What does this fold into?
Amino acid sequence: MQRKLRILVAKPGLDGHDRGAKIIARALRDAGVEVIYTGLHQTPEMIAEAAIQEDVDAIGLSILSGAHNTLLPAVTRLLHERGGGDIAVFGGGIIPAEDVAYLKTQGVREIFTPGVSVDDIVAWVRDNIQPRRD
Amino acid sequence: MSAHAKEAAAAAAGTDEGAGAPERATRFSTVSDMEIQALYAEDDLRGRSAATDIGRPGEFPYTRGVYPTMYRGRLWTMRQFAGFGSARDTNQRFRFLLAQGQTGLSTAFDMPTLMGYDADHPRALGEVGREGTAVSTIEDVAELFDGIDLGAVTTSMTVNCSASVILAMYFAVAERQGLPLTAIGGTIQNDMLKEFIAQKEWICPPDPSVRIVVDMIEFCAREAPRFHPVSISGYHIREAGSTAVQELAFTLADGIAYVEAARARGLAVDDFAPRLSFFFNVHNDFLEEVAKLRAARRLWARIMRERFGAQHPRSLMLRTHAQTAGYSLTAQQPLNNVVRVTVQALAAVLGGVQSLHTNSMDETLALPSEPAVLVALRTQQIIAEESGVTNTVDPLGGSFAVEALTNRIEAEAEDYIRRIDAMGGMVRAIGLGFPQKEIAEAAYHFQQQLDRAEKVMVGVNKYQLDSESPLEILRIDASVEERQAARVRAFKEGRSQARVRERLTAVRGACRDGENLMPVLIAAVKDGVTLGEVCDVYREQFGVYRDPAWL
It folds into this structure.
């Protein structure tokens, strides 16, 4: 039997808007995912470190401060450097379309923007994230 | 319900023979999921008195408004929240808004400023000038208000855990303009309790945070009597997902905590309470919002009189700024946001607010562009000068539905306040995670209702379009960060380092011995101490608060 998915939900950067992060964390948990929530104001280093230590399958990043083009690529880079390159990274927030395209070139698998339903995000996780090992 | 009302309700419900269509749903509720009756009538106001509960505008308990003539006397202040990029960029936006007939300024700061980091700090990376304007030094504040007479406009500054430093810089800049502090009017948000509850920008734990707030209340009461040292804010509580009742209850409970803390400092309630101001959200549900604002005034007036023995009428009046609900806006079909904002702004006006920000249609996509801000401001001007609703005071007063909802929201908010009192007050309740968990629960409930299409967001879960043409949005020039960081570094090199060390020692001393921080901070920023340096002292002296990360 496959083990439960483990996902780290994290808030990079300085903004405190955690409504979305908490709703996603709870919806994933209700969908049977094991969720670890970092809390607010995390640096990319803290997030990469937590993901590796907790041995998660994916990281969901929520950001509304406008610093996404700096902080999200920093997370994927640090994961690669520290042996967590196979941890899938997805994100959500107020992120303009052209930045979404850029972030995908930086190793971010998917970006969800305002108005996406929680069910769609959970379905995407179910279809796209597999346990890294049994 | 009276027999007459029952009959009418039955007719409205379609149960009467020969009546109209059956009801469209089995249950009707507000955006906060408060159930709404088919009809309200005399009986729904039973036990309430028109004279003592509704009263007259300008008289206790101020249900119908804080001033007798309301908008016939003076319109609300149209105050658009603005800030992006460098201080110079924002100064230009301010001048544009003033030229377009705006009557007050409102400053948005970027995240490093709001969290107490200078633009050259590693934690500021990627964030400088993005969510507001970047301010690290007194020179940034001087540039922000360059060419604007601070004696002639009132300025609102949305900043909290680093508010003491920003206010010190603002006062120092006003002094440079040759103005005495007694001539300076404005508002600084400085509501730390709602930060722990909802907006989540903090440096140190709740107790020292409240101590700094009280320092500012005390200093302004003594030295800057036209300045509002705190704007007790429900806005962020609502944006984080609370119901209207929770927004009202937690905001007033925060207000109670500040009054208690200031009294514990030895201040007499009537010496500071007239300068407490409020800030509420106005969401889509029109009647609920009008009722919430009316209930807020009545409840606060009673709390101030009965609980704190306030005598001065201005201590009893809940005067408030309002902002339309950012959360209600949609990225899909963004022109529809103009309509949402209009409905919300009308609720704010019929709810009797003193100042209003109307959101721009593009705010789910980015900070607002100039054309979008202009429509938002014009929305207020159209309500004020074309709609006619300002011709009479509290036109919805006496409506059975509005009065019944006002009573109900007031009663439910009082119930929350009693529960918070039983926990030992708001600081304790925050420690227990009570308001945070209540809000998260309400936010999740609303999201589920949206996902099940029980609540409608036009363009999102109903009436979607297959393809849309994107709006032109404001982009922040990436070079702002580099230039701002360089500017801060150069500023730091140009100071007398000995004076800076001396001033920081004084700040440290005031943190430790309880001396009022404001005079010390004003002296410090004049000698070039930066925002980040003061906040580093706070971190060192008071410790850093960590998010409990409840789910």
Q: What stands out?
A: Helices of chain A lie at 19-30, 44-53, 68-81, 97-105, 118-128. The mean pLDDT of chain A is 94. Residues 51 and 131 of chain A are 14 Å apart (CA to CA).
